[in-house]
Design a protein that fits this description.
With 224 residues, this protein is mostly helical. The chain has helices at 2-33, 41-51, 56-72, 74-77, 92-111, 119-128, 132-140, 148-152, 159-175, 182-188, 193-216.
Length: 224
């Protein structure tokens, strides 16, 4: 009986992770192509590149700073393109912030000369959402075979690896609302205090991931 119950629990967890993986793919499309008030990643990259007059370093600094501000704007990130109304297994705030972070990574990748329509690059962008420490830990324990940079520049697209990456990232996002993240999630629900805590944490994590993506997805564009 106990084994049967555990099997049902594991099956539900797998189903939840699978649905979250589907949400990741929706987020990726929204982040890269843009929707509603959120312009595309290419548009963001081009705007910052022009603003900084062709200075790659300044443009990427601007991309990161701008997306940190977006991630901290709780009302905005919970309503990007109607994501808050989607019947998904991730809360609206987590979905919104992850979309902003994905767009930031994609804009950085675009400036560094990566083709955002390439599935290898898209897999690498999703993997960057974990951040450097989590990626390194999964490579060390064998959960994942390699880094975002290696995936983006691999000889060919690996659908199975793409599924593994989606599962790992979806699981990570789910833990943000359970386990260690539970206390923070409860705090964020408290009026005034919760909003402030959420803005700081979301902004900090976005800056952290932006800096990781900047160093990991190295520049492949020839500079004049």
């Amino acid at each position: 009986m106990a084994d049967d119950t555990m099997g049902k629990v594991l099956a539900r967890l797998d189903a939840t992770t699978y649905r979250a993986g589907g949400v990741l793919r929706q987020m990726l499309e929204v982040a890269i192509d843009g929707v509603g008030p959120l312009p595309s990643a290419r548009h963001s990259a081009g705007k910052h590149y022009a603003k900084h007059q062709g200075d790659f370093h300044g443009a990427i600094d601007g991309i990161i700073t701008g997306h940190v501000a977006l991630a901290g704007a709780q009302g905005f990130v919970t309503n990007i393109g109607g994501l808050a109304t989607l019947p998904v297994s991730l809360p609206a705030n987590i979905t919104g912030v992850a979309t902003v972070q994905t767009r930031m990574i994609a804009a950085i990748a675009h400036l560094h000369g990566y083709d955002l329509s390439d599935n290898r690059v898209r897999t690498a962008i999703v993997l960057c959402l974990l951040g450097g420490e989590e990626v390194a830990r999964r490579i060390h324990n064998g959960t994942l075979p390699t880094s975002p940079m290696a995936i983006a520049t691999a000889p060919m697209f690996d659908p199975e690896l793409d599924r593994r990456v989606a599962k790992e990232v979806a699981t990570n996002l789910l833990t943000r609302v359970g386990g260690k993240g539970l206390a923070l999630t409860v705090t964020k629900r408290v009026p005034i205090i919760g909003g402030g805590v959420g803005a700081v944490v979301d902004g900090w994590s976005t800056r952290f991931i932006g800096k990781y993506a900047r160093g990991e997805l190295r520049n492949r564009r020839r500079q004049s």
